[in-house]
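note to self — DONT lose this again. spent like an hour looking for the file last time. sequence + predicted structure for the chain T wanted, 352 res
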Amino acid sequence: MLYEAKGDYKNSVKYNALCNFMKDSVQRIETQSSFAEVEAKYKAIEKTYENELLTSKNINLENESKNNTILSITIMLLLIVGLFLLINLSTVRKTKNVLIKQNEVIEAKNQESALQNIKLTNLLEENQILMGVLAHDLRSPLVKVLGLINLIEEKDTSEEEKLEYINYIQGICKDSLQLIQDTIDLSELFQEKNAAYLIKKETFKAAEMTNEILKTFKGSALEKSIEIKIINEQNNIDIYNSRPHLKRILDNLVSNAIKFSPTNSIINIDTSEDNYFVKISVKDNGPGFSKMDKENMFKRFEKLSAKPTAKEASSGLGLYIVKQLTELIGVTISVNSEVGKGAEFVLSIPKT
């Protein structure tokens, strides 16, 4: 402005341009300074934000770590509790199983005791029935014997009549003994059925047993002129079973055959075998059995239409005892018979 007043336009323009340049420079510096400040502020803010973000991340990490720790502790606690419950449950189950088994044992023992009580009660009832039957059936023979004794003691009785009465008494005593024996057999049978596990089986020869039976009944058979024949006497057949029980069965069958056979007849005892059974048959030539007889013959105290041929006593227990004994030792009994054509009893004894 000074040089322009002096008219020095050249310097005026020069310094004016220099002045504008200086102003521009100052403005640039101020602008740059402002930018620097802004940039510094921005960086400071950015740094602060980064620090806050980092702090936030750290806090989040710490929180996450805490949460993870809490979660881990919770899971551990749940696992411990679960394991405890599992062990507890296993213990409870074991205890429950032990208690169940103990209860089963107790219940089984109670049932066994109850069963034994029932068996004992039945045994007592059976024995009472038997004693009643025995007392009833023995009363009549004893009355007969007393009457015959009175007749023998009378003065008017001849020696011949006395001998006849004595023979009657002998017959009555034999019949009474048979009744007593049947009752004893049945009583023993009831006891054996309650102790079936005590039955012992053994191997023995069939021929030995049948020959023993032949000798036992030889005298009884001769009284009625009956011949007992052993078929296949020389056989070598083995039997595996209870010998005493099987002999009792055959004793009853042969005794019945003699009782129901007419005089001068034959009784056959035959032994045979197949792949599964040994079979022993007792065949007589007596009156035979009707269809109704065959349905009822193994029942207790059952009186059949067929009668003993020499008026022997019959208690109605013999075939019942036979049937019970066969069931006891696992033997099957069958009968082949027609009225007037005799009877054949067949025992089927398992080989194993």
